[in-house]
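Most newcomers find our protein records easier to grasp once they have seen one. To make this concrete, we reproduce a full record directly below:

…
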Amino acid sequence: MKIAKIFNTKTLFAALFAFVMAGCTNLDEQVLDEVLGDDASDPAGALAAAYDRLGDGTFTSTGGMFAMNEMASDIALLPTRGSDWGDGGKWRAMHEFTWAPDNAIVNDNWDRLTNGITRSLTAVATINASDAEQKTLMLAEAKGLLAFYMYHTIDLFGQTPYRDPLNLSAPVEFIPAGEAIDQLILDVEAIIPDLANSGEQNTHNGRFTKQAAYSLLASMYLNRAVYKDRYGSSFNFSEAAVSGSGTDMDRVIYYTSLIIDSGDYSLESNYFKNFDIDNSGAPELVWAITQEIDYNQHNGSNDLAYNTMERNQKCSPTNRGTNASCITPEFYATWEGNHNDPRFHRHYQYTDGTWFMNDGTDVSVPATSIVPGTSLPWFHFNRGLQEGLQHGPKLLSSASFEMVGDRIKVSPLVCEKSTTTPMDFTPALDFDNPTQAVHAQNQINRGVRCFKFEFDPEDGNGSGKVDIPLFRLGGIYTMRAEAYLRKGDAGNALADINILRTSRTRESLYGNAAGTALTAIDMDVLFREIAFELYWEMWRRPQMVRFGKLEAAQPGSAKPATQPFRRIFPIPQKVMDVTPGVTQNQGY
């Protein structure tokens, strides 16, 4: 099989995933040195396995990077809701900051990331030993994936395992973040000449291209000062760059500008189209997890939408949400005075002109929108932050909505597991014990919900085709704005943030009004604006660390004041028990 054909289109990635499913499904159960001793003779399959780790729960599941970077922040949490979501306290621990080395979420994500490292090292070794048609390109991509997994591992765990993939007798090393970050930067810079520009050599935004490398380098330089002084009270963002001229912030500006100034990407006026089911060609996606893969060899995930929707919110008669994660009261409060921002909320308009207002004035919507491949009607909920009494279709049977003639009837909804509780999403969580994120059964409506990612009605409760952004143009602008402001250049920082604000427009219901510009900016305003642009996209915890905000209490959502050691997570106890050369992180 020719490598060029394998990488021709996104859908043909499916051919590679046969290798993944057949030969690499047990990698989580193997330690690093065992896997690197395997004979992986298929370079394309080895690279596909490394890519697959991105989407197999790591960056697509609520329990993956979302739990680590959004729940452990001021954006999101997942309370225990009556009889649901107790799970030994693992979800609550992420926002109450009580995790320990035996926390299941911490353990699972260590496994996912180190498995990504393993798969990438295996791909490097396999491709290097091959005579593959696109050997140079594939090798560069494998090294880029390796750097990406290692980067997230040092960000979350303060250290990363590594072994020379070309020397199978080499020992596994555990490299501290302060040392690893410099080498990762040099490694990614070194592969840029061998990477393709996105769209060239049959690549697309699901591949690690030059533009993905620029984005990763900007992010690494932005956080480098944190890794050099993980527990410090301030960070030196003016340190000389690892290579090139100027400081870390100069390099952030350089790499982000390569993307912004290229003209290859553009900001989407309808902000939520970046997160639609059919977003594969969205003009903002620099690097994304490609989920629309056929032949049932790689299942996509709809969890970032499914997890937050209530169980009685049904896009089709055969699926539902699961009533779990929600927005913190603290984050919701930052939107005060900004509810007209196009990124806050957007109404859906049906083809006959009907707007779903979700305010009690809706009577019905047309049933002309059909779930693909079925005859089932597709009900479209609004997007963005959902607050207040919710409305939608009621289910009459396993395969039918309540109808008014040939239209779907819209009614006020109640919670599925507490049918006397209106589905009134309240900004306040009002926990009975303010230190514990626990709700009684008749309190499961509490918490504003986030419908940023579109729910996919075709693939049921867990699957989905939305491509998940890893780097997006909106985020690139926020990185550049932050670098400008840390250099004292408020003018350029304000300009970048205002480009984001004014490029987004509201729906035609509101005259397609553009977002409003700010007149001034400082670090607190920038911190808020970054959240407005990137909420629910798995970047918030490191932002809070950089801005010195992570340790503060969030009384409305059960997060206490914490110590700096909580900026990183513990190495799982199961790893400590069997792995020589690894040291537990401070405080654990």
User: Anything to note?
Assistant: The chain has 18 helices and 24 strands. The radius of gyration is 23 Å. The chain has three domains: 1-176+560-579, 195-290+467-548, 303-464. Residues 1-39 have pLDDT under 50 and may be disordered.
